[in-house]
Amino acid sequence: MTVIKDILKQNKRLYRISKIISDLSEEIKVPVFLVGGCVRDLLLEPEKNSVDIDLMVEGDGIEFANQLGKKLNVSTVVPFPKFATARIPYKECEIEVASARLESYDPKSRKPKDIIMTDINEDLQRRDFTVNAMAISLQKDNMGTLIDPFDGFKDLNAKVLRTPMSNSDITFSDDPLRMMRAAYFSAKLEMKIDKQCLQSIKDNAKRISIVSQERITNELLKILGTNKPSVGFIMLQEVGLLEYVFPEISLMYGLDQTSEYHHKDIFFHTLEVVDNAARLSNKLDLRLAALVHDIAKPNTRRIDKKKGYTFYGHDDYGARMLKKISKRMKFSNKTRDYIVKLTALHLRPISLAKKEVTDSAIRRLIVDAQEDAQDLMLLCRADITTKNPNNVKKYLSNFDRVEKRMQDVIESDELRAFQSPVRGHEIMEIFNLSAGKKIGEIKKLVEEAILNGDIDNTHSDALSMLKSLKKTKKFS
Q: What is d(CA 269, CA 309) in angstroms, rounded to the nearest whole number?
């Protein structure tokens, strides 16, 4: 066995906490190990702190967690008796403690049916991938010893993803979410999936249907959070998982489009946009908007004899689709509203960049985009996937011009948080009207006049317009 105590010492926080755990292990005579992702991450980047620390004990994990909580001055430890685990909400990081165990599964569920207490080696065998099936002993007599029965360290260096079990079907059939985690790790760690493992995922793809939507969506968002999300989504498509977890994106695969400033294939264009967005921003919702901005193209795709492929109305159609999709995917209301808005608006800056920009058009875009105007422009920049460097330069220059005009209008018109300068009660008093539909119609006329540049965005100009409207007696 390899001793990596010197590597452990490089991570000062982890080593300090590990010594406390080691002392407790010696005190109560319970073997304890660092396991899983924190071991993998330590071997990759020794000085980088993991978000979580995972411990495995050969014994009662919940009792060990209670004892450790006292040592760390944590008042409340959260137990999960059904899974023989507990979570310690330590101030510096989350610590999860689990009993070494084997699990059996009901074919219709990814949740364990039976749990059998076992030792370190059998526990590591049940884990998803060899790179996550390594442990570091925290016992006094061999602290810092790497326990690696399935050559996870070798696979980590070779950037190969495979399962500890020789029969990968068992790994993925027991917990189908592991198939999506393969896509996540392939993107996050830039790893290639072992051929036998890849075939097993293809054979078991349909079993993803037993996993809850919340867990599937969470894994999709984790893939979007990597430096190059396209790697994970291409893998999902190749193994047949994407048609189950996000069929509208899978449907794009193999569909051509006219390549003015896009990749010719809609699927690969979309993933290039996602990767571009990932380079421009860490904002997860923006990356999601990049993934779904052309979601209606397969539904609106037509062939014009002169223009080639057209997708008229795919912006509006896509926005309407996303309202239903968001409900199915369990996106938050905030995320739903954001991706609907950006999808509906993503062609507007492009159209403004192609012709002379009027202040009126700029005002409308600012008001419709509101606080997401900057993100909208980032999406538009990410949407350029042509391989022609001259075209890239031209389109980016056009967007620079649009953004400059947007900033000029914001500063001159005070439109950053636009709303009508007159309120409903003022309209009711001037026109001697009670609350009703006419109040909204009058207010809309004032807003349109401001957006068109017919009047300034001031209370006095709005009142003058209302008085003029009253003289027409149209709303009497």
A: 15
